[in-house]
Amino acid sequence: MFLGGLQALWQNNQPRRRKPKPRTGKRSRPDPFEPDVERIELWLQGEPRLRAKTLLERLIRRNPERYGPRHLRTLQRRMRGYRLQWIENEMAGLAAAEHPSLQEAQSEEKPVLPGVN
After folding, report:
1. Has residue 83 been placed in a domain?
2. Domain membership flag for residue 55
3. Total tally of structural domains belonging to the chain
4. Cα(51)–Cα(73) distance, integer angstroms
5. If you average pLDDT over every residue of the chain, what do you get?
6. Which structural domain range is residue 46 located in?
7. Is the whole-model pTM more than 0.70?
8. Which helix (H) or strand (E) covers residue 15, if one does?
9. Is residue 82 within 8 Å of 44, Cβ to Cβ?
């Protein structure tokens, strides 16, 4: 009897878990790579397989007062965003440039049931 009441009391006193607040998209800090965005993009276009660590080493050599090892994770996130954007652009370009013979074949297809297709 006592143990059953103790368990119920313990469960009732547990803090309720809250849902995490969604991010508003507002940055809390200024972008540390803002002055070198164009240079980073050019390096990535020239060498698409370039790793974030190598890229950060180049940035540190160019401007050691501004960059340091603490910027690695931020640069990794930035590079992931660039690569996703390039993939989306490539996919959109491929979709826009569909093969013309496929378009003709699709236009020649007759509907199976009139009025449905």
Report:
1. yes
2. yes
3. 1
4. 12
5. 80
6. 33-96
7. no
8. none
9. yes
